[in-house]
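Class, study these two lines:
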Amino acid sequence: MFKHLALVGCVSFSSMAMAAELQTVDEDFLAQVEHFGISQANWDSGEHASVTFPNAYKFTRHYVVDPGSAVAPEEWKDETGSFDFAKLTGLDADGEQTLDTLLKYRLKNHSMVVLKGDRLLHQHFWNGMTPESTHLDMSVTKSFTATLAGIAAAEGKLDMSKPVEAYLPEFKGTAFEGVSVQDVADMNSGLDIKTPPFLSWDTKFTQSQEWNGPNDSGLNGIQDYLLTIDSQKYAPGTHYQYQDPNTEILGLIVEKATGEKLADYLEAKIWSKLGAEGPAYFQADGVGNTVASGGLNMRTRDLAKMGRVFLNEGQNHLGEQVVPATFLEALWQGNDRVRAAWSVGKEAALAPDGWYKDQIRVLNINGHKIIVFVGIHGQALVMEPATDTVIAMNGGYPQTETERMNTLLFVEIVPAILEAVAPL
């Protein structure tokens, strides 16, 4: 099913991992952007996304996730220019447009890397970005968090069938009591959380994270907020609802099960094994909890490397098993529970024959069966096993969770690229 990547290059990894230290906000950068009306309070608004998303971690506390002593191997054969986005087309509301137009002006795309096997077919870095620029990946982070849970389960440290309180007893008496870790990972916990239009979260949630700076909410960290969730809308396992608190609970469970901070576990199990070209930055709340649902910042080329691992049966360029093969097989196959839950969720309108498992979508669109990590502003990692293709992208679409953005991205742009890549 998945295609193997030839083993190339030689990389040595440090065996002396050190715990990441919590970094403070970048006060010099805050002073620099203040002249343009940007602050901690408004940095994540659609108006500012073009300049703030490539610098997001500077606005909050964060951890540096080090690639270690690995030297990124030149494992990709440079065949950029294999196809021309100015000649590929897709539809928008006003008719047919080139992908250049759709990406740059309509979707507000900032960067993209397209791989087929070990061939680099295309890359672009717009909006002042370079290959070295990091970018906020928003909810793409969720897929990394759940993959770490899968790694912990494969190591025998985490039992996904156990209830949340088996790892976090302090959540007895909350809406998470009796909910399995797997249902949390699949967004099937049934939580009853009121959210404003165009948001996937309660504003008190972001206040607890200090996502927009210090505040008077009285919630000192993500866990304080999670403990306030006390009711369910649906029976666990029956309805797919996209809610960030699920991922934050999952991140806390991974930390409890492994005895490591999420940033450290990410570094040890994934980041130091990708041949990453630079560090990742993991945003955190005021007390040091990582924002497991949306706080990762990384280079687009490094995001693409994660896609190569997924399509290489979980192995990196050296043949080391990074992501458990059983995790990938279960993701790709799905099951009746996640299919049924998806069918009553709002995203089923876009892709009826799909599912959401372990914080990752499997979609069937226009004849393409793809694995997708998705961020709410046009960030995505798309993997198609049938053609061994990876599309990694970052963007700053100004509104979240809109039908137009999802249609442009997954119905028009992604299929057009996959069809252009297929015969190459």
In short: The chain has a mean pLDDT of 93. The chain has 13 helices and 14 strands. Residues 403-421 form the longest helix (19 residues).
